[in-house]
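Handout, section B. The chain below has 454 residues.
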Amino acid sequence: MFPQFLPLRRVAGRARRAGATALAGLGAAGMLFLLPPAAAEEAGPMTARESDPVALGWMVGAPPPADRIIRFSDGDYFAFPKLRWTVCHFRQLMPTVGVGRGLGPLRFFERRIDDAIDALTFVPIGGVKPMTFGDAFDVNYTDGLVILHRGVLVYERYAGCLDETGQHAAMSVTKSLTGLLGEMLVADGTIDDKAKVATLVPELARSAFGDATVRHVLDMTTGLHYSEDYSDPDADVWAYSAAGSPLPKPADYRGPRSYFDYLKTVRKEGEHGEAFGYKTINSDALGWILARVTGKSVATLLSERIWSRMGAELDAYYTVDSIGTPFAGGGFNAGLRDLARLGQLMLDGGRQDGVQIIPEAAIAHIRAGGDPAKFAKADYPLLPGWSYTGMWWITNNADGAFMARGVHGQAIYVDPAAQMVIARFASNPVTSNAANDPTSLPAYAAVADYLKAR
């Protein structure tokens, strides 16, 4: 979840409770919107096909009709069903910075499409009636899904705003990219994960991050006084969103004006290292650490260390705050096959065509997982036995599967036993992954079981 792109007039001061309540959880593209309860109930019956942004004609025309225009400055630019268009078009709405694919050759996947996958069945978590994998595509408001098996593309399907040439918001999958960069620098000795944050970024010495270690930040076991409860109009997330917004500030605004400024204000609560707590500001703190240590932003680092070396088909990009800082907690946007390509690198131990792109030790650390006891304290009832480290989600299942996860249904799912990678972009009207996990996690397991038998 995150902050950044809420219309500032609605969050400044955190005093306008009605406006704040109508806003919501941020996604990897920035602070995203939830609907107020009444609107959510009204939107609920609208199916994936009924809410298809192409069918609804958002932003079509020169200019589009007034009732089909979507603006970043409007309070509902990420409200369902508009969000189904917005997830593919953030660079048209707000400032961004590129992640270049470089000048190297494109690396295409061998294709052997397996039509049997759509007919695979599974029982949703908490359900009794079987569902097919193909049906789950629309149930989860999927915009695109790719499956790789042993590095071969066996499934590819698009809908809504996305096609094979487009880019889509990855939302909190961004955190896993930031965490991966951090683990890479730890693995190559550039950063000591036992170092205190204040020794690397002195500006954070007086904040809650100051006496945390880099490892605490990487594993989100920091003790922070920070709330991302979007139903609470006084939650800290609203001040964070105001600080990160690239929109002009109101004349009476006196708060922080960038991610960096906000991070300096965070106060400590509890002890570092005791429990997992999923808080976006950890990812942005890590982004600051990476930038300070290397002299390069996460966008430049990602391009130089991974994106330009893996044969990506498309450039990617990050949304930024008012001073151009990439949103390391949720601002990444990319093509779907490139997201799958990153997942394949994770599956292959960071090696591609005989070249070690990601240090094997970084991936080994992630796959080993974090402490399930610390994770359990965060109370994710749909994720029993899971853990978290390096900003990746570890299932600890028999296959050793691990994930990058983002609100509204974004995912990279890596299953080593099945030699399978699933990459998905989606625009589920419900922010939390608890809405799609029951029809996603068992679907992934069903495909893994099928592929293991082949």
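Note. The mean pLDDT is 91. Compare this with the example in section A.
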